[in-house]
Amino acid sequence: MMAWIAPAVGQARPNAKQKKIYETLVSEGRSLYNEEKYQEAIDRFERAFEIIPDMKLLFNMAQSHRLAGNVEKALMLYRRFLDALPEIRELSQAKKTTITSDVKKWIDQLETEKRTLEEKAKKERLEKAEKERLEKERLEKERLERERLEALAISAAPPKADWKNLTSKWWFWTGVGTTVLLALGSTWAGTQVLSYNDDWKRDWRTSDRDKARLYQDIADISLVGALSVGLAVSVYSYFHLRSGSLTVAKKASPVALVPACDGSGCMLSLTLEF
Questions:
Q1: Strand runs (DSSP E) across the chain, as ranges?
Q2: How far apart are CA 241 and CA 169, in angstroms?
Q3: Residues 51, 40: Cα–Cα separation, whole Å
Q4: Which of 4, 58, 67, 258 is deepest in the core (most CB within 10 A)?
Q5: Of 258, 263, 260, 257, whose CA–CA distance to 213 is shortest?
Q6: What is the pLDDT of residue 143?
């Protein structure tokens, strides 16, 4: 059972109206306190204290705050009450001694509770800070991993074909031109073969047969050269577009054709330089 001090009107010398309001508020406060409606009881006691500052009300307010869980407020009011207690003449010395013992006991309990609450609040702050730190680290790791994967995706993606860059290369047009010339040469040599074959079949001259064989060799070599150069330019262009890492020396053509003839016929040596 909690200790209780019944407030009494004393040194304030209130008028009748103030006294009536005061007594009504105190009565309501005590009823609300008994009903464990501590916050409402506090309101009544505080309003009564404003009308008549009876120091005994400090105890009632302290009790209500303690039971309502307002540790700091209860401690402050208990200490104010102990400071004012020697001057409260309505209470006997024995009553004051008993109340002082009880109040100090509650102060000790509240101090312990206050330390517990402070330690709990500190622990919660540390846990929150740690949780925020871990979350920040997680987000940073996710960002770094995302950037790493994006970099890998970019490096793994095939490069876009840079046709404008390719067609600006001199070796590209040299290869294309060489292929076209060799193809035209093969076509021309083929027409010569047909012409001299016709002459040989008509006149059976040995010179016509030899010329037909010569132009046949030239047509074959030109055709092989055109196919080789065309294939080489295509392959080189593919790798150039894919990686852009292949380079061609500027001092010499990437394609070199060296014709050679002997008694048995003619041949064409093809050199492709990367």
A1: 255-262, 265-272
A2: 12
A3: 17
A4: 58
A5: 263
A6: 94
Q: In 75-201, which ranges are E strands?
A: none
Burial of 212 (0-12, 13-18, 19+ CB in 10 A): buried
Closest among 188, 190, 191, 193 to 213, alpha carbons compared: 193
Q: Which residue has the higher pLDDT, 116 or 265?
A: 116
Structure tokens given for 50: 């404003």
Each residue's pLDDT tens digit, 78-135? 999 999 999 888 888 999 999 999 999 999 999 999 999 889 999 999 999 999 999 9
Closest CA to 161 of 231, 236, 238: 238
How far separated are the first and last CA of the chain, in Å rounded? 104
d(Cα 217, Cα 201) in Å, to the nearest integer?
Answer: 19
Integer CA distances (angstroms), 27 to 23, 24, 61, 81, in order: 6, 5, 13, 20
Band of residue 3 on the pLDDT scale cut at 50, 70, 90: very low
**Buried/exposed 142-155: b ≥16 CB within 10 Å, e otherwise:** eeeeeeeeeeeeee
Is the pTM above the cut of 0.85? Answer: no
The amino acid sitting at 104 is: K
Contact by Cβ (8 Å): 257, 178? yes
Write the CA distances from 215 to 191, 194, 202, 206, 260, integer angstroms. Answer: 9, 9, 18, 14, 14
- How many Cα atoms occupy the beta-carbon half-sphere of 239 within 13 Å? 10
